[in-house]
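Notes from hallway chat w/ T.B., transcribed later so I don't forget. T.B. wanted the structure written out for a chain they're using in a teaching module, and asked if we could keep both sequence and structure tokens in one place. Agreed to drop them here.
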Amino acid sequence: MSNRSSITQFLLLTFADTRELQLLHFWLFLAIYLAAVLGNGLTITAIACDHRLHTPMYFFLLNLSLIDLGSISTTLPKAMANCLWNTRAISYSGCAAQVFLFLFLITAEISLLTIMAYDRYFAICRPLHYRTLLGSRACVHMAAAAWGTGFLYALVHTANTFSLPLCQGNDVDQFFCELPVILKLSCSDSYLREVGLIVVSVCLVFGCFAFIVLSYVRIFRAVLRIPSEQGWHKAFSMCLPHLAVVSLFVSTAVFAHLKPPSISSPLLDVMVAVVYTLVPPTLNPLIYSMRNQDLKHALRTLMARCVSAARD
């Protein structure tokens, strides 16, 4: 395969060689996927149906659940289908779509997590100005900015990557089409353009992370000045779930892409990719619902309605 135009499909990495293990992986991934769909679906429905949750914090959480639902749906169903049907193939257009959607949603997620840190900062450190600065219109604009940033970022990278000649075969060393593994198939010096874009992207990600850290430094300083224990509990119940989600997302993604070459191996790369693509979307609803009494109450109300409707 001498160039890009001669490639009609890519071959993804398989999780196992034996049929029994392939079916075992299928059922395991199906359970994870259903858990993620159920958790994020319940969160979205509870927030949408409960008028008490129509606040900036829960509006951004609804968007986060939509992103998590989209990101796990981008990678896992194809991997499950390949395990079930004992195949490795993904079409050229399907691979390009996976790269685009995954970049789009991951970039939108880090942007949204940064906005959520901004929201938490004003809710705790500037409560008197909170409603003024974060009205419904401002929240919609910020969420649209997060989604728009992800779209533009993914469009530029996907178009640039798939315009390169790919002459190193069509074997993808990952269970889904990911930007770095597609770049490894390039035989052109023009890949340096994409490397430059990746360097800029890493700087932007660390800029978002630095903003989140700075926001929480100021938040914790403000919390320590709260005299009542009840105030402490309320502030931490607002901030700790978001901080846990950020830590989970950043730590897994950074280790996946910046781990030392000395410890890199195909098996480790796949295991790390499974962790950072599947664990955050699955655990985020659980993390947010554990300490949030309002969300737990809304979920209980929603479940009660579903049970009552089923009985009727």
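Follow-up for T.B.: Confidence is low (pLDDT under 50) at residues 1-5. Might be a good example for the class.
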